[in-house]
């Protein structure tokens, strides 16, 4: 029995919608990263970009638990000496909530050229509107846990 490895020309990408209002930030990012990597497909091959496109809507309504709203801090560096900048979760939500979702998903993807190409398939929007109706995206429904067989 030989191991099956998917080829790039055999992959068909679909478009999925995730509503950020239904999830906490980490669970949303984990689900989006799994779809972007292609782990939801039975023919998953780790070294090939076989993931689907993900549209995240309502990024301004994403939730966090505990005191993360005031205590979570996002850092970036300007590139100049002494250029380390920080912003809290609450302030970043007011400024640009899409950055929060993008950073969370990017951190869960591989830190390589493969992960960078998978990240380009993520589209994040503040409201419920998005310009991808022509691609006929469907709302992703994760598989529920199966009840124990009696």
Question: What can you see in these coordinates?
Answer:
The chain is an alpha/beta fold. The protein has one domain: Ribosomal protein L13 (Ribosomal Protein L13p, Chain: A, Alpha-Beta Complex), CATH 3.90.1180. It has five helices and six strands. It has helices at residues 25-37, 68-71, 89-95, 97-106, 113-119, and strands at 15-19, 53-57, 73-77, 84-88, 122-124, 138-139. The strands form two sheets. A four-stranded parallel beta sheet has the order 5-2-1-6, with helices on one face. The longest helix is centred in the first third of the chain and has 13 residues, at 25-37. The radius of gyration is 17 Å and the shape is globular.
Give the C-alpha Rg: 17 Å
Structural class: alpha/beta
Kindly state the number of beta strands: 6
Q: Biggest sheet: strands, sense, closure?
A: 4 strands, parallel
CATH level 3 topology: Ribosomal Protein L13p, Chain: A
Shape: globular
Spans where pLDDT lies below 50 across 5 or more residues: none
Number of domains: 1
User: Termini separation (Å)?
Assistant: 34 Å
Strand content: 15-25%
The topology string of helices and strands comes to EHEHEEHHHEE
How much helical structure, as a percent, in the residues?
A: 25-40%
Spell out the CATH superfamily.
Ribosomal protein L13
Strands of the widest sheet, in order across it, are 5-2-1-6
- Give the count of helical stretches: 5
Instruction: Output the CATH class name.
Output: Alpha Beta
**CATH 2nd-level architecture:** Alpha-Beta Complex
Mean pLDDT, all residues: 93
């Amino acid at each position: 029995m030989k191991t099956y490895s998917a080829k790039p020309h055999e992959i068909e990408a679909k478009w999925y919608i995730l509503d950020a209002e239904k999830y906490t930030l980490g669970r949303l990012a984990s689900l989006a990263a799994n779809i972007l990597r292609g782990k939801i497909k039975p023919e998953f091959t780790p070294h090939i970009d076989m993931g689907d496109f993900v549209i995240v809507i309502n990024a301004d309504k994403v939730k966090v638990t505990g005191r993360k709203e005031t205590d979570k801090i996002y850092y970036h560096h300007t590139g100049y000496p002494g250029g380390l900048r920080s912003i809290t979760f609450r302030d970043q939500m007011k400024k640009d909530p899409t950055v929060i979702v993008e950073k969370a998903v990017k951190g869960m993807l591989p830190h390589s050229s493969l992960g960078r190409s998978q990240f380009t398939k993520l589209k994040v929007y503040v409201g419920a509107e998005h310009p991808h109706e022509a691609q006929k995206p469907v709302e992703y429904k994760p598989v529920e846990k199966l009840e124990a067989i009696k």
